[in-house]
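Task: complex structure prediction.
Instruction: return structure tokens for all chains below.
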Amino acid sequence: MGRTAPTYHQALEERMKRWDEFARLLTSPEERAAFEMVRTGARRYVAQATYVGSPDLLESILLSVLTDLAVRIRAEPSTATSRR
Amino acid sequence: MAVTPPPLRPDGWLLDITESDDGRSVVLWTKEQRTGRVRRTAVEYRPPFLVAGTRSDLSLLARRLTDHPDVHSATLGSGRPSLFDHRSRPVLSVVPTRNPARRALARSVDALGGYERFSLYDVDLGPPQLYHLAHDLYPFAPVVGRPPTLRATEPPETIDYSPPPLRIARLEVHLVGERRGRIPPPDGRIGAVRVGETTLEGPEEELLRALVDELARTDPDVLLTNGGDAFDLPWLYRRAAACGLSSAEFPLGRERVPFRPSRPARSFESYGRVLYRSASYPLPGRFHIDRENSFLYDDAEVAGLIDAARLSRLSLATVVRQSPGTCFTAMEMARALELGAHVPWKKNRPEGFRRADHLVAADRGGVIFLPPVGVHDHVDEFDFASLYPHIMVTKNLSTETLECRCCPASPVRAPGLGYRSCTRRVGLIPRTLAPLLERRLAYKAALKRPGVPPEEAARLKRRVKMLKWILVTAFGYQGYRNARFGRIECHEAINAYARDLLARLALEAERAGYSVLHGIVDSLWLRPNDPEHPPDPEAFAARMSERFGLPLGYEGRYRWLVFLPAVTTGLGVPNRYYGYYEHGEFKLRGIGARRHDTTGLVRRFEAEVLALFRTARDAEGVRALLPRALARADLFASEVRAGTWPVDELLIGHRIGQAPEAFVTFTNSVAALRQLKEAGAVRGPGEFVRFVLLDRRSRSFRHRVRPAELLEGNERYDVGAYLEILARSAETLLAPLGVGREELRARWGAEPAPERDEYRSPEGLGQRRLEGSGPERRY
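Output:
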């Protein structure tokens, strides 16, 4: 419709296309699975990132990924530490 | 205290006002209460349009217009035509010699001013609309007196009114030897016409004359058709002309009209979709309602449309064919004229310059969460009724009240954006919306009263639906660049208030003992932290309504609710879910049953799965039913595989997005369109085409599909394609329970969809090369 600025969601998906190029040279299945997790994390907090309305796309993506990881770490404290 | 005069007993109703052929008058159609007869009265009426500018420019213009052949008079005066005018300014009032010349004359005035010196007002309001407003009248008004001295006995906003008794007759044309819905042959003769309860048959010319007699005898006020604008009326006119009848001998309205549409068919784009509207054939003095050419009719019916006509001062014939946005705009115009302002012809208010980061911050919608994929239970749903209109009213958001000059210190500011609202004057939009909101609540309250007769309840429900649509558009029109009273900053402010509100509500919900499962703009889905002792939802809703000053409603508790994942990411999709309330109702969003293009096969499958899940008490119950749901899917698959599924349940609908000759790739729709064209039926952009897949791999347009209009009933359909469709449908519903398309395909031994043929001839006509688009760029 008649929007001027792309939505956060659109900007994110545009950036994700660039990330595809990054993933193409990840050669082990572990790396690829981990990358998938990061990507899912980036997409999980669309509502919150939109609410902030930051002009810095990467800030919002990083916040989203970090929050997702932190939630996972808190949910499984034993596995997170035992892998160290 | 003012003494209210006793209510007048009306002599009848004003049904409609139409433009007269002579171009100098309007025709008032009134219905007498005593006899039920409809009377036609022509009244001379040539409304002026206004031109504002500097006094010297206007006197020069007035002199130039005096010998203009299209100008009856041009009078210099003063007024405050714009809502933004705080002081009176010079205004030239121009009366055209003929009403149809209004627009052309306005265009030349605009050109004389170099498109910048003059602002014009009231140009594109129709004379009937202006007549209503100038004489305190409205469509379906109960009236006393006789035209031209009619007086309405109650204001249009009256909530409890009795509409005039309308005689409604169905009209249906049948061609000799043809079934309705097939492609009519170009010279197809009319064999029968059903009008009301009567079916007329016989030789064509006699039949057409009998139709005119029957209409004169039964004198219906409304002719109701299914596709009348596209088929019945043009065909009647075409055959009447072929039989040598003149328009005077064959009037279908209460006045003769030429045998041609008042408005040709057109394709247009709305919300990213291409839509199609048939030519329209209104009948003066009699309303022609074509259900297929009306967005509003199915929801609003005559009761809702009458309500909209009264409030907008638009003829029922216009309301039925236009969008709710047109009705809302007309209501705004009516209110503006009531306030002594006028309606600008072209909105001369471009968006202001601003910084890019401000644009990013302001150009945002409401809050939309991603729901957790899966089956949930104990879910309470709440939503704000008409949230955006309520925000516009309570925050006084209107084009002329936002960032006004009179209140630099206004405390009412849009969160995060800081736009101020006026605290001294109530804006046009709130003035238009407040009575509509009040009206909707009054109708809803009346519906809840015990002992409402079923007819009355049906009428009220239609009016509620109608108002809902109008209220929905009110918000969108703030952001539409051509909307007369719209302003993008209002649009942004409304969203900002709504985002802030939902964030605060989510916090309050947590305090009350809920956790937030999902939220979309004005709705929240909440789960009690302790399902054994859930918070009282009604009390929570009441408390929040009070707290925020906006009506939060409790929609109900779900026995179970399934949020569906996106195929691409696996994350939840905001608007795809289905669930069953404790009060025994489904809520379905984004699944096949809600879509227009769904096949009967998928509809039937979904209905069976839902009927099965209906018996589940909670999420566990749904999961336990999965094996039985899969067994149903297997049964469907085996019948599809046997090739015995009735083809009319395999029709796939597709809305055409462009002109048929503009397609570059060979798609199913293209194949269907080519066959239709061969059979003599041309479809335009925005129209629907429906077909059965015969062989999805075929490169021949005849063998690939069969359009609905050409179905024989014994076609052999593409089994693999329909197994794939079934698998997709099953996956949509059951993915959160762990069922995938691949697994179903394997289970049914179905082949996956064919890879799309990437090769295209480089010499192909109309090829467009999209450089560097998409991620598959290779070096």
